[in-house]
Amino acid sequence: MTENTLPSLAKFHRVLHYCTAPWNPERGRLSRNCVGCTGYTPSTFSGEPECDHLDAWGHCRLASHEENMKRKGKIVMPTKIDWCDETINPLGHWCFGPGGTRDKPQVCAYCYAARMAKRGLFTCPKCKTFCEPHTHFEQLEKLAKWEKPRAVFVQSMGDLFHPAVPDEWIKEVFDACEKSPQHHYLFLTKSPDRYLKLAAANALPKRNNHWYGMTVTSPDQYAYYVGTHQTFLSIEPIAAQFDPALLAWGCASWVIVGMETGNRKDKVIPKREWIKKIVNGCRDYGIPVFLKDNLADIWGEPLIQEFPWEVE
């Protein structure tokens, strides 16, 4: 292969980046300044360049999530949540916490949304209290305006499925999602039994672009799986070592793992073996796993960041 043939490489999906580094016919393109092409070598069966570091989902393990998304022609969104492209909050910013009520809220000690409310970062008066149920359904209008498919985390600043949320509000959200089927919708709750109740009432849509997640931070919490609906686990923040068998891994479609952010006094720093055990469990059951960026130092090697809808 010569330098003159390089433009034809655009048709190969495994070429991650174009780079000014010289092409070496024996070793491929080896630019130390381009993390996406560091692993290029000619394929042993076709003579075409191929990245040595691709995982089973076509991601380069050397490149960041942002680089991989750009490579796939996706828009990199401003949200800091690395497992989605965008967030919307049709119920505004409020949460009573798992098992909490308006009179006795039980907001999680590590809740970043509650910290933002305390700092006065919300403009809506009800959002500032963080304990006043209300809606911002105008947020749903964004879905139709986004023509390019996105992974949308619905209600990132609260819990759409908390017992205090009326069924009518949930239906309003589901109806808006149905009108914009180009996106993947990611729902997350600490009240997963609400999924079961909605499913029993035939009010939980079963679509291939709906993903119903539950937050599980320690092995003494239960994980619910809703029939044939697509479900995922968000082990974030991970607060203890998990035994994969306790969580019925064969039923989850995806697993996200992350640690607590911020500087809280009692913040739990996970051990690498905790993460490794979860990754191994996912591999045993063929489940995509996403390690959040905040685990990079603990993991100590390129992060595994897989998305279930990209699995062929």
Polypeptide structure, described:
It is a single chain. The protein has 312 residues and is of the alpha/beta class. It contains eight helices and eleven strands. The chain has two domains: 1-76, no CATH class; 77-310, no CATH class. The strands form three sheets. Strands 5-6-7-8-9-10-11 form a seven-stranded parallel β-sheet, covered by helices on one side. The longest helix has 14 residues, at 272-285. The relative contact order is 0.10.
* Number of E-state strands: 11
Q: What is the distance, rounded to the nearest whole angstrom, between the alpha carbons of the first and last residues? A: 30 Å
The number of helices is: 8
List the quaternary state of the chains: single chain
Structural class: alpha/beta
Share in β-strands: 5-15%
Structural domain tally? 2
Write the layout of secondary structure elements.
Elements: E1 23-24, E2 28-29, E3 40-42, E4 49-51, H1 65-71, E5 86-88, H2 112-118, H3 125-129, H4 141-145, E6 151-154, H5 167-179, E7 184-189, H6 193-200, E8 210-215, E9 231-235, E10 254-257, H7 272-285, E11 289-291, H8 296-299
